[in-house]
Amino acid sequence: MATRPRDLYAVLKVDRKASQEDIKKAYRRLARKYHPDANPDDAGAEERFKEVSQAYDVLGDPDKRRTYDRAGVGGFAGGARTGGGGATGGFDAGGIGDILSDLFGSAARRGGGGAGGGTAAPRKPREERGRDVDTEVSLGFAQAMDGGQVTISVPLAAACDTCRGSGAKPGTSPRSCPRCRGRGVEAEGQGLFSISQPCSRCGGRGVVVDDPCPTCSGSGINRTVKTYRVNIPAGVKEGSRVRVAGKGEAGRNGGPSGDLYVITRVSPSPIFARKGDNLEVEVPLTIPEAIRGAEVEVPTLHGARKRVRVPAGTRHGTVQRLRGEGPARLNANGARGDLHVRFVIDVPATLSAEQRRAVDSLAKATDEDPRARLFAAAADTGEQG
Length: 385
Prior knowledge:
By secondary structure, the chain is an alpha+beta fold. Among the domains are: 8-117, Helix Hairpins, CATH 1.10.287.110; 272-351, HSP40/DNAj peptide-binding domain (Sandwich), CATH 2.60.260. Helices cover 24% and strands 24% of the residues. The protein contains nine helices and 15 strands. It has helices at residues 8-12, 20-34, 43-59, 62-71, 94-104, 141-146, 287-292, 353-365, 372-381, and strands spanning 133-139, 148-159, 175-176, 185-190, 193-198, 207-208, 221-232, 241-244, 260-266, 272-275, 278-285, 294-299, 305-310, 319-322, 339-345. A four-stranded mixed beta sheet has the order 10-11-15-14. A three-stranded mixed beta sheet has the order 1-9-8. Helix 2 packs antiparallel against helix 3 (43-59). The termini are far apart.
């Protein structure tokens, strides 16, 4: 005995006068409820999902809906059947697929569970960018200031030369993963929602290898040591990172390689101290030079000397700046930092007889107590006992 076709409005639980938007909302609600991803291993829910999808294929299309309304239940090309073709002997799943993609992603079109009972076309495996790699290079201070080329050797994961990164034995090819249809992810039902995770069959690659490459055992990747000539810019500091684009580890499935970052380790200078973009050098002064003033030579980069004027009465620790005599500034179009000259008073540890007499004469000629102002200030603030 033939089963009477169900009223498509009743399938979607809407009134016959419902608007197209109401029909669409009803379909969305029921699709969420009965979707196979939300009801694993529930054949009844899957059958109900197909029925809802087929009903929406008719009522969701204004032209098909008008034809259905004129023909009535059972008169629309044989009705909406739940076992195979659509209401017109093979309904168009395009509109349904768009909505399912919004609700569940492409998993909505999986075999037997998607609109129209079709299967998704296998996707191209997802490209993955290779990992960035850090390596270190040791530089002398002068080499860091001047820049130049250095040779480095880096252990990397590179595409296998035998299989050219496919992981398959030469003469064979990987095939699309049958579990995830080449997407690299699979959905796990969690109530009304679907959580995507890397495919358990292919590990997220989207392909499976039936006949692995003998060199890389199917991974498509080999460990190797690469040697590069790297340009180190002038003025690098301790811990500077020099990027070498595309020289990191190889990508998977045709993805781009990562980048190589060369981290500089700079030996300290016995003369100069790095202070940000500048250098600092300590220059000793004799007591007479500090008192009377003088003209002295100070060292600069590359072994050159520069004469500077020391003002009379220069105190210990006074800093004089020499503009543009420091290291090159990175990414500054040739601009250079400054050289800071810090003057320090050189007090002799021992004195000759002549020097002692000179010091005694200076002491007698100096009748001002330099600590008097200190104690006066302490008395004013009440800090003197």
